[in-house]
């Protein structure tokens, strides 16, 4: 069984609107995420919008689809991965001198049997894969910070 919540955060020395512009453009997800190679939003980014993703880990590639579940402009963007029901979100908070960004992965519906078995067999098990996901979150946030502070 995995962790119901994975999370990372960073403080960025840029105003919320500038950081929001980077995060809310989901087509740019491959620039931030070390695992995401492509993210194609079908239509405009809005609650209910679908996206097709291509992910990579070492030599393994796999597609996923997701659904945008929440948009609070300049505050929160969330999407649900359709296969495993994991909800990924970015939350922005104004702080002195910039923006705090928290990236989270939640398991509101628990862990689905088939995706968990696939992670166990193909990705070295849930604990090590979750460690890799948190490392990826931290890398994503560092990349967003670098872009925002340019």
TrEMBL record:
Family matches, as SUPFAM superfamilies: Bet v1-like (SSF55961)
Superkingdom of source: Bacteria
Gene3D superfamilies: 3.30.530.20
InterPro entries assigned: Polyketide_cyclase/dehydratase, START-like_dom_sf
Name by which UniProt lists this protein: Uncharacterized protein YndB with AHSA1/START domain
Source organism per UniProt: Mycolicibacterium fluoranthenivorans
Lineage start: Bacteria, Bacillati, Actinomycetota, Actinomycetes, Mycobacteriales
